[in-house]
DNA sequence: GTCTATACTGAGATAGAC
DNA sequence: GTCTATCTCAGTATAGAC
């Protein structure tokens, strides 16, 4: 696996372009131009644009799973692992300010297009949701775990949305601090239902 | 002002279609079809798609200002007025699940297109931001008011994003309850800096 | 035979002439 | 208000290069 195959290059280029410009706005010519192959050529690799989209979603899902596993290895407490998630917003702050969240943006676009792949794109959200839920279970919030996971996911989406609209890095850092304080609060409350308002 | 002018009809149709399908995905023919006028007649009112976009953004800004004023009249406490904002998510739950937040979606799309009107679209966020900030000032959180406004705006964006991805009405209702509990907390803390993590 | 490149078709869009 | 020019794009057919 010294150098990537043409197929891998196409998927990588499409992945980035779909993020930067959006799925609809990215043409075959754009991708071909990036990979430096002729436009007709990659009909050998992909029969349609939807096939490229499927491949991109698959790759994103794999990368997401790998990232979640890495976080589990990097920190040995559920609280620390949840912080990895929150800090992702800071690590990716430049891309987020320029292009928003890749998962949220793709889901929103496919939803408006009523595209058949919207369920597949939504699965990436579900990967995060289930992983977060498991961390909250380990943190002791067994009954609320799913609500807490959705809450944290929503907070991160909101931050990405406004950071993109206002191009405000300070806002990202401030909100991540708020999330970390909230996580401390959830942890300290342990298995009680507090923190979810119920 | 018994019946709307052709121009107003065009803008109203474009407004809805931009929300439901997105700006790029909406063609002149789509709008003309809705208004039932010929495409030629169209050019009498708008020379380009960007002109329609400007008109739509202007109308949305006006409607937003009117809505904010209405909330100020409906409730006589800043806490009650802030609840109007949060409850907007429940009032518009069906549209939000189907199409997301109109403000956030347009800003995100124009950002990806690097469209000249993205600053104008962002102004609608700013309208909300400034209005929310003023409510928090009146609530006693003078120094934090802008951070609190951004925080609330972000929460609402995140809720819209996930409600759209998961088509989950219960989630919306639960998160709005969390916001209301958070607002009570902010109010009870009054002018202190608590609640923002600083 | 796998990969790549060129040329072409048809659909649908903006834009504008008449 | 019809009709047309032009452009971009997805998709195809087919032939050449390694």
Explain what the structure shows.
The structure is a homodimer of 198-residue chains. Chain A is mainly α and 198 residues long. Chain A has a domain at 58-188: Orthogonal Bundle (Tetracycline Repressor, domain 2). The first copy, chain A, has helices at 6-21, 28-35, 49-74, 78-91, 93-99, 102-113, 118-139, 145-166, 169-189. In chain A, helix 3 (49-74) packs parallel to helix 7 (118-139). The first copy, chain A, is elongated. At the A-B interface, helix 6, helix 8 and helix 9 of A face helix 7, helix 9 and helix 10 of B. Chain A binds a DNA duplex (18 and 18 nucleotides) through residues 6, 27-29, 37-45, 47-49.
| CATH evolutionary superfamily of one domain in chain A | Tetracycline Repressor, domain 2
The proportion of residues forming helix of chain A, as a percent range, comes to: over 70%
- Biggest interface and residues each: A-B, 43 and 43 residues
Oligomeric composition of the shown chains: homodimer
How widely separated are the two ends of chain A? 52 Å
3D shape of chain A:
elongated
List the helices and strands and how they pair.
The structure is a homodimer of 198-residue chains.
Chain A: H1 6-21, H2 28-35, H3 49-74, H4 78-91, H5 93-99, H6 102-113, H7 118-139, H8 145-166, H9 169-189
Helix pairs in contact in A: 1-2, 1-3, 3-7, 4-7, 4-9, 5-8, 6-7, 7-8, 8-9
The structure holds a DNA duplex (18 and 18 nucleotides).
């Amino acid at each position: 696996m010294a150098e990537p195959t043409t197929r891998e290059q196409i998927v990588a280029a499409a992945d980035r372009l779909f993020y930067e410009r959006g799925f609809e706005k990215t043409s075959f010519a754009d991708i071909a131009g990036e990979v430096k192959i002729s436009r007709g050529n990659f009909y050998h690799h992909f029969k349609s644009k939807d096939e490229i989209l499927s491949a991109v979603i698959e790759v994103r899902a794999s990368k997401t799973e790998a990232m979640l596993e890495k976080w589990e290895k990097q920190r040995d407490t559920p609280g620390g692992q949840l912080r990895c998630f929150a800090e992702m917003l800071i690590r990716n702050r430049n891309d987020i300010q320029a292009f928003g969240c890749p998962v949220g943006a793709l889901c929103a676009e496919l939803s408006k297009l009523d595209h058949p792949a919207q369920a597949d794109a939504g699965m990436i959200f579900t990967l995060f949701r289930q992983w977060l839920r498991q961390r909250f279970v380990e943190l002791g919030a067994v009954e609320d775990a799913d609500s807490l996971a959705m809450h944290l996911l929503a907070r991160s989406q909101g931050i990405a949305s406004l950071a993109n609209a206002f191009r405000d890095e300070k806002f990202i850092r401030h909100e991540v601090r708020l999330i970390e304080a909230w996580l401390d609060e959830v942890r300290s409350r342990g298995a009680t239902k507090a923190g979810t308002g119920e």
